[in-house]
Design a protein that fits this description.
about 15% strand; 12 strands; alpha+beta; about 40% helix; elongated
């Protein structure tokens, strides 16, 4: 094979020449490279004899001294791909086989996700989350991790709202919340609302979710005897949602730049307390600011000129 030159962080690195030993590099003992570097070089030598690569061990050691572990791994992969591309293909196949996502709830009420992905899948998820994880304004104090989680929620919420997902158990996938009327009214002593497998949430959280939702009123005699099941109705109609988009242009919380498709409809006076579902009593809020208004103690006020104040 014709000799190949490689370029790295500091110019030319391993220029093919003569073969070298395949054992542990002596440079590991004198501290010139780390164990991680040495393992990478030895791993390559076991897969592709350095005689075939026509590069000396010393040249790989020189390269390692100028690269961190991740950079060296990429550099060695370019050599693998040049001489034996099937090694990279086999590794990608194994990575795809081991992809997984698990979801578990814990006794402390948190829900944990654990995932591992092949490079292509990870890049797709990262690109989608990065597009939605930007700060919404100067007052957005969420950490990067919090913003990325909120972005994941937004992606999932958008698909649920689109109605394009396949039916599950004969109905369209949706967030199912069961709450007693006292919980929605904020009465003392009310029971917590129930999300099913993930657990229970507060009445305040239930009120926020119920601001913009499809509601089925069920009258019971005790915890299980159903006396009447009413029709499912939306608290905010599609026409009202379109009108809110035209009027509010996005989240109305001061200085927030979230677009309309990133927002939920909020009742200034909750419908459970008799607040009407008309435009004068509705406003668009992004998920973060909707939470601030319901559970964070903030109050929104709309002025005659159409501006908003958050207190």
């Amino acid at each position: 094979m014709r000799p190949v030159s490689w370029r790295g962080q500091r110019g030319r690195l391993a220029r093919p020449r003569a073969a070298g030993p395949a054992g542990h590099p002596a440079a590991l003992g004198d501290g010139r490279i780390t164990a991680q570097h040495a393992a990478g070089i030895v791993g390559l030598a076991r897969e592709i004899p350095l005689a075939n690569v026509q590069a000396t061990e010393a040249e790989f050691v020189t390269a390692a001294q100028h690269l961190d572990g991740g950079q060296l791994a990429r550099y060695l992969d370019t050599i693998r791909h040049a001489y034996q591309p099937e090694l990279i293909v086999d590794r990608e196949t194994a990575q795809r086989t081991h992809r997984e996502l698990t979801i578990a709830s814990t006794l402390d009420g948190m829900v944990y996700l654990r995932a591992s992905a092949h490079p292509e899948g990870g890049a797709i998820v990262d690109a989608a989350l990065s597009a939605l994880a930007g700060k919404t304004g100067a007052d957005d104090l969420r950490s990067r991790g919090q913003r990325r989680w909120d972005a994941l929620e937004q992606l999932c919420r958008g698909y649920l709202d689109s109605g394009t997902l396949p039916d599950h158990g004969g109905i369209r996938p949706h967030l199912a919340l069961t709450a007693d009327l006292p919980a929605l009214l904020g009465h003392p002593g009310a029971r917590m609302a129930d999300l099913g497998y993930p657990g229970q949430i507060s009445g305040a959280a239930a009120r926020r979710i119920a601001c913009d939702a499809a509601i089925s009123r069920i009258i019971t005699d005790g915890p299980s005897a159903v006396l009447d099941a009413g029709r499912t109705t939306r608290t905010v109609t599609p026409a009202q949602r379109r009108a809110l988009t035209v009027r509010d242009h996005g989240c109305v919380f001061p200085d927030c730049q979230a677009a309309p498709d990133q927002c939920e409809a909020h009742h200034l006076i909750h419908w459970a307390n008799g607040g009407p579902s008309d435009l004068a009593n509705l406003a668009l809020l992004c998920a973060f600011h909707h939470w601030l208004v319901h559970e964070g103690g903030w109050t929104l006020t709309r002025h005659h000129d159409g501006s908003w104040t958050a207190t």
